[in-house]
Amino acid sequence: MALIVISSVTAQIGGNAMQIHEWSGFTILTLVLFRLLWGILGSTHARFKAFVRGPRAVWDYVTSLLHGRPVFHAGHNPLGGWMILALLGSLLVQAGTGLFANDDIMIEGPLAKHVSKELSDLLSKVHETNFKLLLALIFLHVAAAVYYLVARRENLIASMVTGNKSIPEGEDVRATRGGPVWLAVLLLALCAGVVYALVHY
After folding, report:
1. Angle, CA of 77, 132 and 190, to the nearest 5°
2. Is residue 105 very low, low, confident or very high in pLDDT (cuts 50, 70, 90)?
3. What is the pLDDT of residues 12-64, one digit of tens each?
4. Which secondary-structure segment (H or E) carries 132?
5. Cα dihedral sign, 17-20-24-30
6. DSSP assignment, residue 94?
7. pTM strictly above 0.85
8. Is position 41 within any domain?
9. Which of 26, 61, 147, 185 is 20 to 30 A from 73, alpha carbon to alpha carbon?
10. Could you write out the DSSP letters of every residue in 9-76?
11. Is 171 contained in some domain?
12. Which residue has the higher pLDDT, 70 or 64?
């Protein structure tokens, strides 16, 4: 969230602040790539296969939610799972298009020189439009977390920060596996290296 704020503010300021804007974008791209890898190799509830469900599962969950009896999920619920995919997709588009964007004055992404001006202009428009979509998704995500906290007495915000979730009595939750710290560090370093190589070479 902090990086999104930094990116937004520096884009409004322009000038020398755009250097910070670029570094913020590189960091976001690194973290998104890491999260995608962690969704395959990481801890039990971080893996996409643990929370990405089909339309029927999403509909069943929405129905249970509307009836005031949502089914408990130790990780992301089916609706939240698709929100995570939408956020990651939008962040990937935002950071990716930023690499090729230009402002028609003096600033351009590190890869803009490798594509035509027409394509760079198109990606710049996508970069600008997608940011509005990203803000809408963030608003929905925060609103959902507040709803669960106030209406359902379920603190999802704390769960996001600590990685731990309170299990209601009577819920049969299978054992979970935490992702090894060394693997997380290795994957993060790998993603940082890929982004560094991408923008410098």
Report:
1. 65
2. confident
3. 888 889 999 999 999 999 999 999 999 999 988 889 998 999 999 999 999 98
4. helix 117-151
5. positive
6. H
7. yes
8. yes
9. 185
10. HHHHH-TTHHHHHHHHHHHHHHHHHHHHHHHHHS-GGGSHHHH---HHHHHHHHHHHHTT-PPP-SS-
11. no
12. 64
Range of the domain at 51: 2-163+178-200
- How many structural domains is the chain composed of? 1
Nearest to 125 by CA among 95, 97, 96, 90: 97
Residue 37 belongs to domain with CATH number: 1.20.950
172 in a structural domain: no
Answer yes or no: is 169 within a domain. no
Query: What's the gap between Cα 44 and its chain centre?
Result: 18
Is the pLDDT at 155 greater than 90, yes or no? no
Q: Which two tokens stand for residue 96?
A: 């990716």
Q: Closest Cα to residue 136, out of 4, 2, 39, 3?
A: 4
